Amino acid sequence: MDRNTLSLALCGVTALTFCGPVSADFIKDSKASLELRNFYFNRDFRQDGSAQSKAEEWAQGFLLRYESGYTDGPVGVGVDALGLLGVKLDSSPDRTGTGLLKSDRERPNRAQDEYGELGLTAKLRVSQSTLKVGTLLPKLPVALYNDSRLLPQTFRGAWANSAEVENLSLDLGRFDRINLRNSSDNEEMSVFNGGNRNIVLGRTKTSDQFDFAGATYKWTPNLSSAYHYGGLDGIYKQHYLTLNHLLPIAEGQSLKSDIRWAHSTDDGGSNVDNDAFGAMFTYALGGHAFGLGYQRMSGDTGFASINGTDAYLVNLVQINDFSNEDERSWQARYDYNFAALGIPGLTFMTRYLSGDNVDLRGAAGEGKEWERNTDIAYVVQSGSLKNLGMKWRNASTRSNFGSDIDENRLILSYTLALW
Predict the structure, then answer these.
(1) b/e string for 223-244 if b means 16 or more Cβ within 10 A?
(2) What is the pLDDT of residue 321?
(3) Which pLDDT score is estimated for 19?
(4) Distance CA 101, CA 95 (A)
(5) Of 262, 312, 341, 372, which shows the fewest CB atoms inside 10 Å?
(6) What is the predicted pLDDT for the residue at 107?
(7) Taking the model in full, what pTM does it have?
């Protein structure tokens, strides 16, 4: 199917948005790509008495993305599409639970052979403001979609963004459903890690309304701050402040500061009560980067977020996010970009995190945990395999109140621009 045919087909599917002929810009400014993502996941449970010795699966993902341009006129109209397909390559009943594949409802502890979804998004543009309605992939402090497995998590709703005022970006919207990273079903939302009063009569309390708003202001090219609000109706509400600064020191040297603070409370249907502070400072020198981070939880619960999403925390890493009740954690990180040695595309990262002071609610002593991560990645820069990415992610975590895990992820990815 060529570009014109696909554009016209998608226009017809979202006829609600179009009331006139498709303009040249709608087609000329469109773009489409196909990402192939091959994912092997192995998680080895090391603690005594574990119900499952390991979770191990292998799968192939296909991500088709299409973005149209906008029609001419004071109100530009367009449409985006996202096609997702996950295919099982290897799994078994005693190795499920990796988050790569969808569970088979009719056969317990088995993964479906394939799963997927098609998401359509209608969009309007007026001046420097846009409105998108349909399938969304938010990157907001109060709602951060999860893309750590085979296919990304998606949201359904409406999202308006305005950049009419120079250096100021405003966001406003509502989500009513989520589709988890290993699912093809749009579901209502619930709170994760905020407490246990969201369990009512043995069932998880859910909501079909998450409202959000935010403002981000760039004071200088290197300094920005933001405030965001998010509220899961009848369950919890959250206020989030962020500050980002990049300080150039000398040629090839800089200091980056990332400071975050969130205040979360219940909204009648949970016991959410949490203040979360986090700060990450990264010193860059040539191809090297040295980072130090600190994170502190306070209140009667851990950090609250929508189920299935990534928590917007400085100590969110491969396995843990160190956001338990009263937890204090620190992080030491080192990155190296081999482009400094004439090998562009090759990168290395390693980090260590340690957390303590976790409130174990009646158990003796305090909860403690640590995690170590190492990533090695390479993206082919030229030739017939250009854009082929290879990544090995290794992690180990130990805890006196949770799971002891050794984990490896091998990811091959290739993105083909269709036009």
Answers:
(1) ebebebbbbbbbbbbbbbebeb
(2) 96
(3) 45
(4) 11
(5) 341
(6) 82
(7) 0.91
Helix (H, G, I), strand (E, B) or coil at 198: coil
CB–CB of 259/282 below 8 Å?
A: no
Burial (Cβ within 10 Å: 0-12, 13-18, ≥19) of residue 14: buried
Length, in residues, of the chain: 419
pLDDT for 6: 43
pLDDT for 25 equals 79
How confident is the chain (419 residues) per 10-residue block, as mean pLDDT? 45 44 75 97 91 94 97 94 98 94 86 96 97 98 97 98 97 97 94 62 80 98 98 96 97 97 93 97 98 97 95 97 97 98 97 96 87 98 95 97 95 95
Count of alpha carbons within 13 angstroms of residue 40, beta-carbon side: 8
CA dihedral 307, 310, 313, 316 (to 10 degrees): 110
Q: Rounded to an integer, what distance in angstroms lies between the CA atom of residue 245 and that of residue 225?
A: 9
Full DSSP string of 141-173? TTEE---SSSS--EEEEEEEEE--STTEEEEEE
Ranges assigned E (strand) in 221-323: 223-232, 236-250, 253-266, 273-285, 288-299, 305-306
Instruction: Read off the tokens for 71.
Output: 């029609």
Residues 360, 337: Cα–Cα separation, whole Å:
40
User: How many degrees, rounded to 5, is the angle at CA 192 between CA 187 and CA 196?
Assistant: 110
Cβ–Cβ under 8 Å, residues 80 and 36: no
> Residue 95 has what DSSP assignment?
G
* DSSP element (H, E) containing 77: strand 76-90
Rg (CA), the chain: 22
- Name which of 199, 194, 228, 212 is nearest 303 in CA terms: 194
Q: What is the pLDDT of residue 199?
A: 46
Q: What would the two tokens of residue 258 be?
A: 């990332």
Q: What is the DSSP letter of 378?
A: E
**Ordered alpha helix ranges (H), 198-356:** none
The tokens for 296 are 């502190």
How far is it, in rounded angstroms, from Cα 378 to Cα 325? Answer: 38
Model pLDDT, residue 362:
76
